[in-house]
Amino acid sequence: MSGLGLVLKVIMATNRADTLDPALLRPGRLDRKIEFPLPDRRQRRLILQTITAKMNISPEVDLEDFISRPEKVSAADIAAICQEAGMQAVRKNRYVVLAKDFEKGWKAHVRKHERDFEFYSV
To answer: Which residue ranges does the record assign to the AAA ATPase AAA+ lid domain (predicted)?
Structure first.
């Protein structure tokens, strides 16, 4: 960032843009700031369908229930929820992922983020 004659490219990512040091945001420090907003309901449905396409999901699982929940989740959160649901089924020696597995994945990831952000609140 300060000239030693090196060509250096840095990619930074954060979930908490509001906590960035203002010195990083001064002109000349970063070339571009790309923001990815949280997905809307339609996008959440597409993300969830894509991630669960190769999962063996029980017919009782209502993915619309998870899509319509009011909590704001990113695509990474959705992927983590699905991965945790699959791991819950594996831990129970099941070949089918049940609704309760998705519920545990949801609680493990979405509720966890809410608690983590409370720590940073002023």
So the answer is: 61-104
